[in-house]
Structures are given as structure tokens and as C-alpha cells.
Design a protein that fits this description.
The complex is a heterodimer. Chain A is mainly alpha-helical. Chain A contains 15 helices and eight strands. In chain A, the strands form four sheets. Chain A has a two-stranded antiparallel ribbon with strand order 1-2. A two-stranded antiparallel ribbon of chain A has the order 3-4. A two-stranded antiparallel ribbon of chain B has the order 1-4. In chain B, a hairpin with a 2-residue loop joins strand 2 and strand 3. Classes of the chains: A mainly alpha, B mainly alpha. The interface between A and B is large, with 47 and 44 residues.
Chain lengths: 356, 329
């Protein structure tokens, strides 16, 4: 809410020195919004910023928020690239369900008594199961990419097919049941700790770093931006638009697949019906909040991650304030409306004209 | 000698004609009903077809509204949520505020139209993407449902109960008043799309907004009206749903927007806009309903097959539309 009107005029004029330049940085607005939310939490929730170390793990609201936001951050990273090319991928939730169930069904976990001690073993080696789940996500991405880049279907329709069908396939895998996983090592992905921090955060960090390297240190980021700004011009300039679009959808599904593994491992089960439900919408919201233009072209990877954190903090704040969690949707809707309006040149013109 | 040639060319021209995909849907529907009749005893009765209408009356109304939006080149993801909000409003106004039923229905329809119109105005005047605005509208409407009540509210208003229980006798079976209302809406919508200036403007905007603007068509008014119409249809769908379920609940009709879009696409309307028929909504909805009925009749297939089959059908229709579009150029 606050991020919208923080910098009405400054964003227009780019080359201000010092602090102002800092303020006009694309991530500044989402960060300001996040800071505002954290400030609200500071005032409302006693001990919000308190971090304690128990059993060598870091505990606290901040860690909790970051940990819970991890799948959304991953999905948002993938979605950023898709939206940057003027696309949209609404099948993210279905891919999450599919990869999660794939892993859960393959790992399962049967009890074996070894030397009198009951222990659970994986149905097939966990590495293979994870690879299969990731592979399924890649296949989903390839399917989306094929429809969008190959058949030139509208992205929203192309991914709608998988959104409807994917969840059905996931339910087919589990026979409509919720599959519970009993295999201990699998839980590490979603709820394990490494050096005191949740392991899921390391996954996000690695994916983020790799994507950032790929985008900003190679020409890929430029190409994606070019396709987003003007697909025809980009193609005429020699960018392999179709291949790039295909890649972007595969990448998005891959991110969703890892997010699915994370969710499945965290809740120790796979629910084909509800896992990742509406995650695509949250991811789109995170990307929009992060300052990526829905019309394509301008994108900010870090912004999307901040956007995901904003959404999770918002949820946390609403819970902490004792407001019914259902109100969350109303708040989210208002935030989307405001962010969209702030991106609209026509809306800004309403305010620019007045002082003149 | 020349007769077969001309027939051949006429047959070849078929796929290019605007009603081809709509025709494919009708053939598909007949084939599905036929296959069901062969495979399952008691499937091929007129009551089964009437039941398709009764059970999917609300979806038909949603699809009609969605049809206009898609013809104009837009999309409305909020219809399912607006439907749920309407059932909730109906239930709350009737049960808690004790308003008379006609006033409740009138107010709900008016609010639905206003809600859609407001989204249309945002989309048009601020050049926002229809997709994201209606997505936010969906969140807002579902959230408002829960603000009214988190629990489901049962409706015991006499008018609503009567609407739910009444069976209008027809030769070969019976039909509910809700289904009749849905068919009436469809008839009015077809007239609106085919025989009025508004309908032509919708097609023109969907074809090319710039050209429509240059032709002097009232683009702003038409677009806002289209979304208002969709909002109206969604709230009417909500009233029909309330007749059908006799309750208001925030979780009603989850994913109905996707079913409505699927019905419109399967009905032969091009998602890019400007191409298709409102009547396709009926065949699309009936195909979706027939899939569910077939799966229910089979008994061994589980409900998720519905999703898979609908996904597959969507895929086939999109590809067919794409290929037809490609051959035309």
C-alpha cells in the first residue's frame, strides 16, 4: 500500500545524484513497501525482530516468514522471466501439484525393521524420485513452451490447458488420495536446516544467483527484455524469439517444480487437489509488486523476490493483527489494484496535469 | 460434370467458414450423447439432456457473459467469485436482513453489473490488462464473501425454495425455472450480439480496437458495457446457483471462470476476440456437462478424468482454431 505513492515524481527523472538515484532504483519501491509492513509488525507484534538460537537453528518471525515465502519466491523468479517476455503462466500451481505428487508417490516410504529398529526406506532411490519429479516439471514447461512458441497460442490459454489438465493428472497419479511420505531424508528439502538457516532458503539463493548471473552477465537478459518490449522487432533484429520463449516457459515450470518439491517435503505429503492452489496468482502478484511491467520488457528479479516476501509478510501481519485470514484476499486485491494503477501512464497523467 | 467439383469446393470451403468450429462442437456433442447411449443403458433419454441444462444453468449464464467479453478481445476471471459473492449476498439479505426476495434479486443483479462495469472502466480508461484487473476482482469478490460470513448460509425463503423445487413439465421430461431463465438469457444475448449496434461494436473491437475507434464506434462505452454485462451475468448465475443450491457460500463455484472460458472456447469462439458465436456457449456448456454425465454414468472413472478430458478438449480446440487461422492467412 505504501509502495505505491512513495515516489510519484522521482521515478520519471532518472539521473538524479546520490540519494535520489538510490530512491529511483526499481527495487526501492517494493523494498519501501516491505519496510513499511515490517514497521507495522514492529509496532503490533511484540518481539517481532527477536531471533533466538535453539538447537543450533535460528528461530524467529523473520526466519519463519522467509522460510514460508520460499516456494513463492521460486515461483516468482520463474514467473518474472515469463512476464518479461509479455507472457503469463497460470499453470504454476498445477505444476507444483504434479511435481510434488510425483515425488511423493515415488518415494512413499515403507517401514522396515532393521536390527529390531523400525525405519522407513524410499520406494526408489530419492535422487531418482527427485529427478523424475523435476523431469515432470520440465515436461510441463516444454508443453507450455511448445504451445506458446510453436503453435503461437495466447499464453493465458496455452497455460490454462495445463492448469486444468495438470491437476487432473496429479490426482490420477495419487488416485485422488493424499499421499503421505514417511521417508526422513526427503523432509530436509522443505524443513531441514543448514548452518542454522532453513535449507529451502539456500535453494532459493542458489536459483536466484544462477538466474541473476544468466540474465545480467550474459546477453540473455537483454534478449528477454527485447522480446518483451517488441517481439517482432526483436525477431527482425536476429533474436531467436521462439527458442527464447520456449526456454522461458521451461524455466518457469522448473522453478515451480522445485517449489512443489519444497511444499511437498514441508507438509510431508502430497495433496494433488490443493497443493499450490492459487500459487500462480500469488506469483503474478509478487512479480507485479516487484516492479516488473505486466506489459513486458522491464523486469526486476530482485523485485520479484521482495514481492514474494511482501505477500508473506502481509499474510503474517494480518494473522498477527487478529483479523480473520479471509480478509487477506481483500487486502491483496486492493494492493493489486493500487500497484496496477501506479503502473498506468493514464492514471499518472491524472496527477501530473493538475499542478501544471 | 461440374456438380461434383462445386460440391468438393464447397466441402473444402467448410473449414474456413465462421461457423465451422461451432459445428464441430455440435457434432462432438451429438457423438458424445450417441456414444453414451450405446454404452450405458438409460443414457439416451430426453431427461438426461434436460438435466444437463438444469445442472449447468448457472454455467450457461456465465458463459454467455464470458462470450461477450472474449468476443471483445478481453477476459473476465472474476465471474466465479462474483457468482459466489452473489449467492452470499442473496443468503445474507434474505436470512439475516430479511429483505423481500424480489428486492434482493434486483439489488444483487444491479451490484453485479456495477462491479463488472467498474472493472471495465479500470481496464478501458487506465489501459490496465483485463487479465490482472479481473484477477484482482476475483480476489476482492471472494474476500468480500468471507467478510459477510465464513460459514455457508442456508436459504429458506419461500420464493427461492419454490424456484428450486418447481419442475416445469415438458414433453419427455421436466426442466427447472433456472434452466428456463438461462435459455432466455441465451436468446436475448444472441439477439444482442447478432442484431444490435452494440453487438456489432463488440465484434469490431475484438477484431481490431484501433479500426473500431477510427470507424467512430463508441469503444469506451461498449467495453465498459461488455464487462458490466459479464458482471450482470455472473450475478444472475449467482442467483440461479442460489436457487439450485439454496445456500450462499464463499467457496461456491470455485474455478467456474475456467469452466466458462473452456465452454466459450469449445463453443468455437476465438480467444483472440472478434470471431465466434454467443450460441456456442450453449454447445460448449453442454459438452462440458456431457463429459461429467458420461463419467458419472460410467461409475468406474474418477472425477479427475473430467479435468483431464476438459484439458485435452481445450487443447484440441485451440490447436484446431490456430491451424484454421493459419490456413486463412
Amino acid at each position: 500500500m505504501s509502495g505505491v505513492s512513495v515516489l510519484p515524481a522521482n521515478a520519471e527523472h532518472g539521473n538524479k545524484p546520490g540519494v535520489l538515484r538510490w530512491l529511483t532504483h526499481p527495487v526501492a519501491r517494493p523494498l519501501a513497501a516491505l519496510a513499511f509492513l515490517l514497521l507495522v509488525d514492529l509496532m503490533l507484534v511484540p518481539g517481532f525482530f527477536k531471533l533466538t538460537i535453539k538447537d543450533g537453528h535460528l528461530y524467529g518471525s523473520l526466519v519463519d516468514i522467509a522460510n514460508r515465502a520460499a516456494p513463492l519466491m521460486l515461483a516468482a523468479i520463474g514467473m518474472t522471466l515469463v512476464i518479461a517476455t509479455r507472457g503469463i503462466d497460470i499453470s504454476v500451481g498445477a505444476v507444483v501439484a504434479l511435481s510434488g505428487t510425483m515425488a511423493a508417490v515415488l518415494i512413499g516410504g515403507t517401514m522396515v525393521i532393521q536390527n529390531g529398529v523400525p525405519s522407513y526406506v524410499s520406494r526408489i532411490p530419492m535422487g531418482w524420485a527427485l529427478a523424475a519429479a523435476f523431469g515432470a516439471a520440465l515436461l510441463c514447461g516444454a508443453w507450455n513452451g511448445l504451445l506458446v512458441a510453436g503453435l503461437k497460442l495466447q499464453p493465458i490459454v496455452a497455460t490454462l490447458i495445463l492448469m486444468v489438465g495438470g491437476r487432473g493428472l496429479a490426482q490420477l497419479l495419487t488416485d485422488g488420495q493424499i499421499v503421505t511420505v514417511y521417508y526422513q531424508p526427503f523432509f530436509f528439502i522443505g524443513s531441514g536446516y543448514l548452518f542454522g538457516l532453513p535449507f529451502s532458503l539456500y535453494i532459493v539463493a542458489v536459483v536466484f544467483a544462477a538466474t541473476a548471473l544468466l540474465l545480467y552477465k550474459t546477453a540473455l537478459g537483454l534478449f528477454i527484455q527485447a522480446v518483451g518490449v517488441n517481439p517482432v522487432a526483436a525477431r527482425l533484429a536476429g533474436v531467436r524469439t521462439a527458442a527464447l520463449t520456449f526456454f522461458v516457459y521451461v524455466f518457469c515450470s522448473a522453478c515451480a517444480g522445485v517449489a512443489g518439491l519444497m511444499i511437498c517435503s514441508n507438509i510431508k505429503s502430497a495433496d494433488a487437489n490443493n497443493a499450490g492452489l492459487l500459487l500462480e496468482l500469488d506469483a503474478i502478484l509478487a512479480v507485479t509488486l516487484g516492479g516488473t511491467l505486466l506489459a513486458g520488457g522491464r523486469f526486476s528479479l530482485a523485485g520479484s523476490v521482495v514481492g514474494a516476501l511482501i505477500i508473506q509478510t502481509l499474510t503474517y501481519t494480518i494473522y498477527a493483527m487478529g483479523v480473520p485470514p479471509e480478509v487477506n484476499m481483500v487486502v491483496k486485491a486492493v494492493v493489486v489494484f493500487l500497484v496496477c494503477l501506479s503502473q498506468s501512464p493514464q492514471f499518472r497523467a491524472l496527477f501530473v496535469r493538475r499542478p501544471a | 460434370m461440374s456438380a461434383p467439383v462445386s460440391t468438393m469446393s464447397r466441402v473444402r470451403a467448410w473449414p474456413a467458414s465462421p461457423y465451422f468450429t461451432s459445428l464441430v462442437t455440435v457434432v462432438l456433442l451429438i457423438a458424445m450423447l450417441g456414444a453414451g447411449g450405446v454404452a450405458y443403458r438409460g443414457f439416451l433419454s430426453s431427461q438426461v439432456v434436460f438435466n444437463l441444462l438444469i445442472d449447468n444453468a448457472f454455467l450457461l449464464v456465465l458463459a454467455v457473459g464470458m462470450g461477450f467479453v472474449i468476443l471483445s478481445g478481453g477476459i473476465d476471471l472474476s465471474v466465479g467469485a462474483v457468482l459466489a459473492l452473489s449467492t452470499m449476498l442473496c443468503a445474507w439479505l434474505l436470512q439475516v436482513a430479511h429483505w423481500p426476495a424480489p428486492a434482493v434479486i434486483a439489488l444483487v443483479l444491479l451490484l453485479g453489473a456495477a462491479y463488472g462495469g467498474a472493472m471495465g472502466a479500470l481496464i478501458h480508461y487506465f489501459r490496465l490488462q483485463a487479465f490482472i484487473v479481473t484477477l484482482a476482482g476475483m480476489f476482492l469478490a471472494r474476500g468480500l464473501c468471507y467478510l459477510i460470513s465464513v460459514e455457508s448460509i442456508t436459504i429458506d425463503n419461500p420464493l427461492f425454495v419454490a424456484m428450486s423445487r418447481t419442475q416445469l413439465m415438458l414433453p419427455g421430461g421436466f426442466i427447472s425455472p433456472g434452466a428456463l431463465i438461462a435459455l432466455a438469457v441465451l436468446a436475448v444475448a444472441i439477439w444482442l450480439a447478432q442484431y444490435t449496434a452494440f453487438g456489432r461494436a463488440v465484434y469490431a473491437i475484438g477484431g481490431n480496437e484501433q479500426s473500431a475507434l477510427m470507424m467512430g464506434l463508441p469503444v469506451a462505452r461498449t467495453r465498459v458495457t461488455v464487462y458490466a454485462l459479464s458482471g450482470f451475468c455472473a450475478s444472475l448465475g449467482g442467483v440461479l446457483f442460489a436457487f439450485y443450491m439454496l445456500s450462499g457460500y464463499g467457496l461456491h463455484a470455485q474455478g467456474a471462470e475456467l469452466d466458462a472460458i473452456a465452454a466459450v472456447v469449445i463453443g468455437g469462439t476465438l480467444l483472440a476476440g472478434g470471431y465466434g458465436y454467443i450460441a456456442g456457449a450453449l454447445s460448449g456448456v453442454l459438452v462440458l456437462g456431457a463429459i461429467q454425465t458420461l463419467i458419472a454414468f460410467d461409475g468406474t472413472l474418477s472425477s479427475w478424468w473430467t479435468k483431464i478430458v476438459i484439458g485435452a478438449l481445450l487443447f484440441i480446440f485451440c490447436v484446431v482454431q490456430r491451424l484454421l487461422g493459419a490456413t486463412k492467412k
